[in-house]
Amino acid sequence: MIKWRSGLIFLTALLFIMIISACGNNSEGGSSKSDGSNQSGEKAGSKTLSILTGGTGGTYYPLGGSMAQIISEETDFNANAQSSGASAENMQALKNGEADIAFSQTDIAAYALNGELMFKDNKVDNVKAIGTLYPETVQIITTKDSGILSVEDLKGKSVSVGAPGSGVNANAQQILEIHGLSFDDIKAQSLSFDESTDGIQSGSIDAAFITAGTPTAAVESLSAQKEIRVIPIADDKIKQLIEKYPYYAEDTVPKGTYKIPEDVKTVAVKAMLVVRGELDEDAVYNITKAIFENTNKITHAKGKLIKAEAALDGIGNLPLHPGAETYFSEKGIQP
């Protein structure tokens, strides 16, 4: 009788353990998703891919967020977008192996690969191109009541020219130079886009150079508070600028952008994606394909301008990563 009771107790305990174990395996805490993702939404066993963008008030940051989501959905990578100091800082970070992919202006990428201007004695030789994205418009922003009507009117004014070594800083220097001015002729302030527009709103600065895709978030926010003016660049000055610095192209800020009453002539460079050259060819092929074949998932207005057919426009002598080159070759797209 005692042995029978002991056996019954053992079987009851064993059954109880099996039931608890089955419940645990079916609970949310113990389940594994069928798509290979863990509880945080990341794909199990996949590699992390870091994308450097720009300041939160610019265009790179929201675009980078959309692209990170696309890459995470369409490839084996878990991509994350990070804010940064943009072009020049991004090129340096890739050189140092601190990130995998980055946004840059085409002119800054060229300076980095050639060891020129802010990259003198600091040549970047491990970065390659994925492709160009859209025009980055040089916008000289002020208020309607500032009295500033031309680039020449910036003389003696407090003007934001971007961080030292940034793409904006180089654009400001070159545009002022064509107009016979330099940073010595203005009260140059090294501010981010958000700081620049905050400064214009508060009256602590008079104007700002902002190089970004239009509409730019920081300028849109300013235009909701103040009536702004975009300073034009004259046709002859545009011609001189392009002759000396061929990475520029003529561009226009359209009427209605920031509520301006008419089109404003200016110049632009191209935004592009660059990547560490060490990244695997197949990986970069898949990343390139994911981005250019899912641009409909990009929520920013600039997404409509990002096309595989135009991705090699303005690439100049910048070397393509073999993975990107394979993708564009399959599409019949040549530089």
From TrEMBL:
<protein>
    <submittedName>
        <fullName>TAXI family TRAP transporter solute-binding subunit</fullName>
    </submittedName>
</protein>
<feature type="region of interest" description="Disordered">
    <location>
        <begin position="27"/>
        <end position="50"/>
    </location>
</feature>
<feature type="compositionally biased region" description="Polar residues">
    <location>
        <begin position="27"/>
        <end position="41"/>
    </location>
</feature>
<dbReference type="Pfam" id="PF16868">
    <property type="entry name" value="NMT1_3"/>
</dbReference>
<dbReference type="InterPro" id="IPR011852">
    <property type="entry name" value="TRAP_TAXI"/>
</dbReference>
